Amino acid sequence: MAEILGNGHGEARDGTVVVNLKEEDEHQQQQEAIHNPKPIKKQDSLLSFSVPFLQKLMAEVLGTYFLIFAGCAAVAVNTQHEKVVTLPGISAVWGLTVMVLVYSLGHISGAHFNPAVTIAFASCGRFPLKQVPAYVISQVIGSTLAAATLRLLFGLDHDVCSGKHDVFVGTLPSGSNLQSFVIEFIITFYLMFIISGVATDNRAIGELAGLAVGSTVLLNVIIAGPVSGASMNPGRSLGPAMVFSCYRGLWIYIVSPILGAVSGAWVYNTVRYTDKPLREITKSGSFLKTVRNGSSR
C-alpha cells in the first residue's frame, strides 16, 4: 500500500512517498488464503483407508479365497472320488497354489494370506500394527467364502464334523490335541522361518521366494497332513469351521500357528547376520520387497 506522509494538515512533507511493504505482504497473503485455502490435515485413524490400501485388502481376500478353494477342493475330490488325488497330490496343490499366488499378488499386498504371518511380521516391526486387523479380517473373509463355495459345489451338508458321513474341508486333530498343537507349532515355525529368510533379507534371492515358500508348504502338508491337517493358518481353519459350524479343536489352529509364526520370525531375526543398524533393518514391512529391489537393479 502506498502511503503519503503529511504534516497533519493534509500537506505532504517534502513530497515523499513511502511504500509500506509490510502491509502489502499481509494483503497479498490474505488474498492467497482466500483463493487458495490450505487443506485441512486429517488425523490418522484406524478406519481411514486409502485406495492403495483397499487394493491390498482386495488382493488378500482374493488370494486367500483361491488358496483355500484350491487346497480344500483337492481334499474334497480326493475323499469323494476314491482317493484319486492322494496325499502327495494334495500337498502339491497347496504348494503350487501358494507359489503362483506369491508371484501374482506378492507385489500388491505382500501375499500374506495368513493371519499368523501378518501378526508375526507386525510383532517384529516389519508390518504396520494398525493394518493388522484389516488384513486378518480380509483373510478370514476369503477363507469363509471359499469354504461356502465348496459346500455348495460338493454338497457337503451331512454331519461333516464327525468325519463319518461326509468330508470336512476344515482341520481336525486325528490324534490328541497336544500332538496336533505341537506339530502345528513346528511346521508354522518352519514356514515363517523360511518366509523371513527369503522375504526380509536382502542377501536372499528374492525372485525364488515363491518357490521356496510353496515348497515349504508342500513338505509341511506331506508331514503333518495326516496328523493335524497341516493348517499353518488360523484363517484356513476358521473359515470352514464357521461355514460348517464345526469348532472342535479350533483353538489349536488359532493359537499354535500364531505362536509358531511369531517364534519363527523372531528366531530368524536373532540368527540374521548384518552390519546394518536395527533401525534401518526394521523400517520396512513389505513382504517380498527384495523382488522389487532386485528388479530395479
Automatic annotation (TrEMBL):
One GO CC annotation: membrane
InterPro entries per record: Aquaporin-like, Aquaporin_transptr, MIP, MIP_CS
Keywords: Membrane, Repeat, Transmembrane, Transmembrane helix, Transport
Membrane disposition: Multi-pass membrane protein
Compartments reported by the entry: Membrane
MF annotations from Gene Ontology: channel activity
CDD domains referenced in this protein's UniProt entry, alphabetically: MIP (cd00333)
Gene3D superfamilies registered for this protein in UniProt: Glycerol uptake facilitator protein
Family annotation (SUPFAM superfamilies): Aquaporin-like
Pfam families: MIP
Spans traversing the lipid bilayer: 57-77, 84-105, 176-196, 208-230, 250-269
PANTHER family found in the cross-reference section: AQUAPORIN NIP1-1-RELATED (PTHR45724:SF13), AQUAPORIN NIP2-1 (PTHR45724)
Family label: Belongs to the MIP/aquaporin (TC 1.A.8) family. NIP (TC 1.A.8.12) subfamily.
Protein name: Aquaporin
